[in-house]
Amino acid sequence: MNYFNTLTLFFLLILFSCNSTNKSVSTTSEKETQIESKNMIEDGFTNGTITTSKKEGDCPITIKVERKEGAYYLDPINLPEDFQKDGEKVWFKYGGLKMMNRCNKASPVSIIEIQKQ
Asked: What residues have CB less than 8 Å from 44, skipping those under 6 apart?
């Protein structure tokens, strides 16, 4: 019986040791992501998600920007083709344009710099 208790204790020790390592790696990854986000924002980047639509009156491609106050949409007139994928998360710099909106929900912008998240 003593052998069984020792074996059980050893097994539980190994099981919980492995689990704590995974939490540590996850926490480190989350911290790295937060640091990267902070650095990108300090460098003037905005984060957003590429969205596509085939509805009449909508822009075919927009960038959805989420904020605490709510989401807003931008209409990039010069978005590179390799970024035109629905759901793609991006960091980008942009400039506003003084032109008529091409659709109702988004303001036209010119992409200055863009990269995938």
From this structure: 93
User: What is the C-alpha separation between 3 and 26, in angstroms, rounded?
Assistant: 36
Q: How far apart are CA 51 and CA 59, in angstroms?
A: 9
- For the segment 7-61, what is each residue's pLDDT rounded down to a tens digit? 666 666 565 665 544 554 456 678 887 888 899 999 999 999 999 999 988 999 9
Task: Just give the CATH number of 44-116.
Answer: 2.40.50.500
Task: Answer yes or no: are the C-beta atoms of 74 and 114 closer than 8 Å.
Answer: no
Supply 61's token pair.
Answer: 């491609």
**The whole model's pTM is what?**
0.71
Distance CA 60, CA 52 (A): 5
> Any idea where the domains of the chain sit in the sequence?
1-43, 44-116
